[in-house]
Amino acid sequence: MTNQELLRRPEIFTNREETDYAEQELIEMIEQDSVLIIGNVFDWDYQRRGLRVSFGKGLLGFIPEDEITIRNMRYQRGFKMPKDAFFLIGKNIIAEVTNHNVYRREFELSRKMSMKKSISVLKAGDIVEAAIESINEKAMILDVGAGNLAWMSWKDFSKVPYNSIDNIGFEKGEWLNVFVDSIKDTRIQVSRKKAFRDYEEARKEYQENENIVAMITDYRNSEDHELYEFSYWVEIEPNVPGILDTHKALPIGKIADLRILSVKDKGLKLRLAS
Fold it and tell me: Which domains does the chain have, with CATH numbers?
């Protein structure tokens, strides 16, 4: 795997066997060029203040405290290590090899350098594969490469209303295609909506009586409440809303078999396929 490919890879989706170097092989490589590795953080060194990393063919690495992240390090009273270091223990990371310490038989590493290089190849307007790191009431946080975290507010998630973040159909650790809206220093803003075609383009491909599969996202106040007891919003694509009127009560988050009744200016009118 090339350095450029690794810089685009979210850390949660790395496998240390992809950079399975032997000691002498790696020594020769770093004499010629910069080398990125995938390693597993297994401990915090309280005396030297840094992370201990295993990687390659039985190799050991050390990341000094000031080389862990490009973000401001977070500390908390009662913690004997930075919070940023604590949350990395047990996880795979991407780091650049900066030196070989002959006496300790270990390699010095910098995660900060790999994060900087990852941001340098990321551009506003890119569509990238990101990994979900966390989900809260305000936003979704995603790794867009080498541990760099991006923020996505819920207004950028979908054009379709969602009843709750518990019903978005995605969980921590899953892939998501996102559009890079902006990059300012280490702050990255992304959008799921902008990674997909808009409704005017998409509607041309949908036909009346076509069967589709989509997720029910929210309850809806129906204009046809006298004819149908229940009405729901449905996400067909992030920018393609569907309106489902039915006599049947359905759970939010259900993946349903549906039939297109008509293609309207604001979305697709739907019925249950069976």
Answer: 3-119 (2.40.50.140), 122-195 (2.40.50.140), 206-272 (2.40.50.140)
Query: Pick from 258, 112, 232: which is nearest to 167 by CA?
Result: 232
Q: Can you tell me the distance from the alpha carbon of 198 to that of 45, in angstroms, rounded to the nearest whole number?
A: 51
Rounded Cα distance between 114 and 96, Å, is 6
Q: In this structure, are residues 132 and 170 in contact, taking their beta carbons and an 8 Å threshold? A: yes
Three-class DSSP category at 145: coil
- Rounded to whole angstroms, the Cα distance separating 109 from 100 reads 9
Q: What are the φ/ψ torsions at residue 156 (nearest 5 degrees)?
A: -95, 0
Nearest alpha-carbon partner for 94 in 117, 73, 72, 75: 117
Q: What is the 3-state secondary structure (H, E, C) of 78-93?
A: CCCCCHHHHCCCCCEE
Beta strand pairing status for 211-219 and 230-237?
A: antiparallel
Burial classification of residue 79, based on how many CB atoms lie within 10 Å of its CB (0-12 exposed, 13-18 middle, 19 or more buried): exposed
The letter for the amino acid at 116 is K
Q: What DSSP character marks residue 9? A: S
pLDDT in 10s for each residue of the chain, 274 residues: 789 999 999 999 999 899 999 999 999 999 999 999 999 999 999 999 999 999 999 999 999 999 999 999 888 888 889 999 999 999 999 999 999 999 999 999 999 999 999 999 999 999 999 999 999 888 999 999 999 999 999 999 999 999 887 778 888 999 999 999 999 999 999 999 999 999 999 999 999 999 999 999 999 987 666 688 999 999 999 999 999 999 999 999 999 999 999 999 989 999 999 8
Quote the tokens at residue 113: 């350098």
